[in-house]
Structure formats: C-alpha cells, structure tokens
Design goal:
Structural class: mainly alpha
Radius of gyration: 30 Å
Number of domains: 2
Strand content: under 5%
Largest sheet: none
Length: about 650
C-alpha cells in the first residue's frame, strides 16, 4: 500500500467520524423539550445534594456555635461522595433511557430501511448513535464537574480521587448506553431495551462479587493473581470501586495506592466490556440489514414458452391432482374473547416472551439459586435471596407497566379502544390486572424459597441423616436450625403484593400522562426512589440540622412505608431459633427512635401483622387513586365522560 493510498484512507476515516448520524442525533436530541427538562432537573438534583450537605454547616455558623468553620474542613469528602453517587445513579438511568430508542425508534418511524440503504456502514451507524447520545451524557456529567473541582478549596480531597471517580461514573454510563443500543437493534419498542440494560448492569455489578465470595467458601486459601477473592471484588464491580474511592479512601479504610490500582483495573474492565458490546452491536446491525433493507428490484427476462414435444399428450394422460385433506377444528377449541377484550389480550402476554425463553430463564434462575444456597449456606441466603427477588419484582413492576398506555398511543391503537363501548376505567383496570398477573412469579418464588429454606430444612436434614450421606463443608452449613419462621411468609407477601400493585398503578397513571414509554418508566422509578429514599433522607438531615425530633419521626414513618423495611425486618427478626415473636421495630439502629407499643420489647407478632395490614390498605388506596387518575388522563381531550 502506497503512502498516498494510506493518507486517503485516513482522510476518509476522519470524515466518517463522527459522521452524519452523529450530527443528526445531536440535532434531534438537542431540539427536544425533554432534553431541556432533563438537564434542568439533573442540575437541580446536584444542587440539592450540595444544599443538604452545606445546610448544617450554615446553621452552625449562623447560631455562632463555633463548629461551622471546623466542619467546612470535613465537607469536601462528603460533598464529593454525594455528587459522584448522585451522578452514578442518574447517568445510568438517563443512559439506559436515551440508548433504548437508538434503533427501535428508527424502526417504528419507518426510517431504518432508508438508513440501511445509504453508503453508511454498520459501525458508522452504531458509533454515530453512541456519540450523539454520549454527547448528552457528557453534558450532564460535566454539570457536576465544577462543583467537584470547587470543593477542593476546602481541602481533604485529592484530585486523583475526583478524576478516578468521575472516570468510573462516565464509563459506567457509557457501558449501559451501549448495552441499550445493542438491545434496541432487535426491539420494537424502547421499554424492552431500557429494562434489559438495567438488568444487565445489575448483573455485572453483583454476579462477579457473588462468584468471588462463593469461591472463598469452596477454597478459603484461594488466591487469584496474588490477591484474595475479597480484594478482587473491587475491580470486578463498579459500585464497589466507586465506594472504595469515595467512602473507603475518605475514611482511611484502605491504602491509597491499592484503591487507585483497583479502581483503574475496574475502569480497564469496563472499557473492554464497552469494546465488546460495540463490536456485538455492529455485528448484530449487519445481520439486521438483510431483512430491514429495501428489496432490490429483480430484472425481468422474457423466456419463450414453447411446449416440449409430447407435453400436451402427457398432460392429458396425467393423474388428477390430489385433493388437500380437509382440516376440521374441534368444538370448543377456538379462543373466546368474551366481553372483556382488553383483559383477554393482557392475559395472553407473558413476562418474558416465548416458551423457550421462559424455560431458559427459569432454568437459569433455579440453577443460580441452588448454586448460591450450596456455596453460601442457607443461614445467609434465606433472607438475601428473597430480598433480591423482592427488589427485582418492585423495580420490574415499576418499569414494565409504565409503558402500558403510552405504547397504545405510540401504536395508534388507543384511539381505536376509545371508540369502543369500553369505558376508560375498564381499559385501565384490564391493563392493571394483566400487569399483576404477569408478576405472579415473584411472590411465588419468594414464598417457595422461604418455605424450602425455612421449616422444611429440618425434614431435609432428617432424610439426609437416615441416608448417612456426606457432603462438603458448605452443605453442612446449609442445615442450620436458625431458619426464618414460616409466620414471616404471610407478612412478607402481605407487604410485597400490594406494594407491587401500587408501583404498577402509578406506572399506568404516568403512562397515561406522558407521551413516551421510556419517560414514563424513568419517572416512575425516580418517583419511587424519591418518596422512599430521598424524602426520608432529606427530613433526617433537616431534623439533625434544626434539632427537630418531629422531622426525624416523620422520616421514620415514611421509611416504614417503604416495603423493603418491614419485609426485611420481618424476615430478619422472626427467626425460628428464637421460638417466639417479640419483634424489634428498630432495624435501622439509632436512626429510628419511635414510641413503639412496648418500648424496647417492640411489637408482638399480632401487632406487627396488624401494621402490615394497615400498610397494605395504604398501598391499595394509592392503587385506587392512581387508576382513577389514569382513566381521567386518558379521557382528557377526547370529549368522553367515561
């Protein structure tokens, strides 16, 4: 290859990066009204974090207690930690949302075939989509960078910590965005890639640490590359690496050079993962070009139709054509829709898709659960595994039901439904019941796991003793008598099922109000986090700043409306080894100091069960209100009154 040819190729490569797809994406995203709202709310969230951290210091300075100036020296690590974790969570959600519609929106708009018929190659399309959306992510990430660099004036934070933490945040958002783009190639709507990309992120966050922890149970003296498996948790998971950079370094829990090397190793891992996802995206888009590209016109060739000699005689003597066998449909085998067509259609939908996918996912979940039970021992997993399923069910219910009405609007079928005699309440109620039916697998899994790892453990151990079977050391830890009492199962389900219904109903209401499916899902998840996490935290900080015990008690009550708190407390304190039900209502430690019925003795089982009944009634009240608002917003502008 000559120097001139090489120079020409480099010039072509330079013109193709970022390319016309990037320019189009930046122009389209920049002119959307939602983009301005996201930037504004993102900046306000960062300012809110700064305000909550600075508020106690300002109050101390105003009151003249003399501690304000001293506390300014400690504010920089707290502010750095708060800003980096706020950007980590928000950028992950935004990256999944904007990447989920990269290719699926082109397909729904009918422009994917046109795009694939241009001279632009697959890698240029994927790179343009990624850079166009990555530009928006960088704008949001840079909003917090002046605050991060400004806090160094107070001292206590090294520039290396800020740089490495910022790098981890950006790479995490980049990987999630690339995952969403990869999954959107085969998707028809954006909500599927949005949920799948967040699920993939959770998998790469927690599966490698679980494997490393399990390896310690198998071989306690195991070392990998000269490090213990516990140390390798940090480079294998971005949240652990970011926690080491922010919390561990500021508190002196780990050596500085070790933290930086582990964090940089995690950055290299995330960069390699992005390169792999980018290559898979290009390869998958190339395969999608064949069915989605416009068909090439065939050339018509005239062929002289001259009958062969003796063809007419052969045709006359040929056997008559066989009649096709008539197929009969058995009686009562047809699908009867009935008087509730929307409910019938919702009941036909599966949570995963085809039967093959359902069987595959079920086999993987069962295998993973058995492996975790084998390696960790039931004393640990009998609470951890149900809580993971609990969180997955709540988040999936909040995200998957949000596009229910917005998807009908995007598919232009909502107007058809509104022309039928069905009322808006019937449509919304059918959507809600269909969503709840698809979520049945989560409470069933929680109840089954708690039952099998709880009271039935004694039966299993007796069977094993009769057979005189021997197992490795991890299996001996499995048969631990300190199991969760079976009375905790109805308590957990009484909290979980209404809570799942509540987030599903709020998702339906937001889907009726908002136009975009991903916007409804993101807002529903953010609303859930704001009510159950951010609001109590803000009240706790304000109560500490103003010495207001009332605000802290209100924060405690709001915290106890979060389903994770009573469910986790019910499983954690109803231990069968205690042989009783004195319930300690303060699992949060000193953060929660409330006048409970029996003081330190806490609730009895009956009293706690009554509390869960009241909490379930509160959730069902929110369900009724949200469904009413969803029906009202559907009818807005249609002229119908029901």
């Amino acid at each position: 290859m000559t120097a001139a040819a090489s120079d020409t190729r480099l010039r072509r490569l330079g013109r193709s990066i970022p390319g016309p797809v990037f320019l189009k994406e930046v122009w389209v995203i920049g002119k959307k009204r939602a983009t301005a709202w996201v930037r504004t709310l993102f900046g306000l969230a960062l300012l809110g974090v700064c305000g909550l951290i600075f508020l106690p210091i300002v109050i101390d300075s105003i009151e003249g207690t003399g501690t304000g100036i001293a506390r300014f020296q400690l504010v920089a690590p707290q502010l750095t930690t708060g800003l980096l974790w706020c950007e980590f969570v928000l950028l992950a959600l935004v990256g999944a949302a904007i990447g989920a519609g990269a290719i699926s929106e082109e397909r729904r708009a009918g422009t994917l075939a046109t795009l694939l018929s241009t001279p632009i190659t697959a890698w240029q399309i994927v790179l343009g989509k990624l850079l166009g959306r990555g530009a928006e992510l960088m704008i949001l990430a840079l909003l917090g960078l002046p605050l991060l660099l400004g806090v160094r004036a107070f001292g206590g934070v090294r520039a290396e910590s800020i740089a490495i933490g910022f790098l981890l945040v950006v790479l995490n958002a980049l990987v999630i965005t690339q995952t969403a783009i990869l999954l959107s190639i085969r998707a028809k709507r954006a909500v599927g890639p949005f949920l799948s990309s967040l699920t993939f992120a959770a998998a790469i966050y927690f599966i490698p640490p679980l494997i490393l922890v399990a390896s310690v149970g198998i071989n306690p003296g195991l070392t990998i590359l000269g490090y213990s498996p516990q140390m390798l948790i940090f480079p294998s998971s971005t949240p652990f690496s970011l926690g080491a950079v922010t919390i561990g370094l500021n508190n002196g829990l780990m050596d500085e050079s070790t933290i930086y090397s582990m964090a940089l190793a995690n950055a290299a891992w995330m960069g390699s993962l992005w390169a792999l996802l980018f290559a898979l995206s290009c390869l998958m888009l190339r395969t999608a070009m064949k069915p989605d590209a416009p068909a090439q016109p065939r050339k018509r060739v005239k062929v002289a139709m001259t009958p062969a000699p003796g063809a007419e005689a052969a045709a006359e003597g040929a056997a008559p054509a066989r009649k096709r066998k008539t197929r009969f449909v058995e009686r009562y085998s047809s699908r009867e829709v009935g008087d509730r067509p929307v409910l019938w259609r919702e009941f036909q939908q599966r949570i995963i898709g085809s039967k093959a996918k359902t069987i595959t996912v079920t086999a993987l979940v069962v295998t993973a659960t058995l492996a975790i039970d084998f390696l960790a021992g039931l004393q640990v997993v009998q609470i951890a595994v149900p809580m993971i399923a609990f969180a997955a069910g709540i988040i999936l219910a909040a995200a998957s039901t949000s596009p229910a009405i917005a998807a009908e609007r995007e598919g232009r079928t909502l107007e058809v439904l509104l022309t039928t005699p069905l009322s808006a309440q019937e449509i919304v109620r059918a959507k809600f019941l269909g969503a709840m039916r698809r979520m049945w697998v989560f409470p069933a899994f929680i109840a089954a796991h708690m039952l099998l790892t709880g009271p039935l453990v004694g039966v299993y151990s007796e069977v094993l003793q009769i057979g005189e079977l021997t197992f490795p050391e991890p299996w001996r830890r499995v048969w631990n008598p300190d199991y969760v009492h079976p009375a905790a199962i109805p308590v957990v389900l009484l909290v979980f099922i209404p809570a799942m219904g509540m987030v599903s109903a709020t998702g339906l209401a937001l889907s009726a109000k908002l136009r975009r499916t991903t916007a409804a899902s993101v807002v529903n998840i953010i609303l859930m986090g704001a009510v159950w996490l951010a609001l109590p935290l803000i009240l706790m900080i304000l109560g500490d700043a103003f010495d207001a015990d009332g605000l802290q008690k209100i924060a405690c009550l709001i915290w106890w409306t979060c389903p994770f708190v009573p469910a986790g407390a019910g499983m954690g304190y109803m231990d069968g080894s205690k042989r009783g039900f004195p319930f300690d209502p303060t699992p949060m430690g000193p953060l929660i100091e409330m006048p409970w019925p029996h003081g330190e003795a806490g609730f009895s089982y009956v009293e706690f069960f009554a509390y869960t009944v009241v909490l379930a009634g509160l959730y069902l009240g929110v369900v009724r209100l949200a469904l009413h608002l969803a029906a009202k917003w559907i009818l807005a502008g249609t002229g119908r009154d029901r």
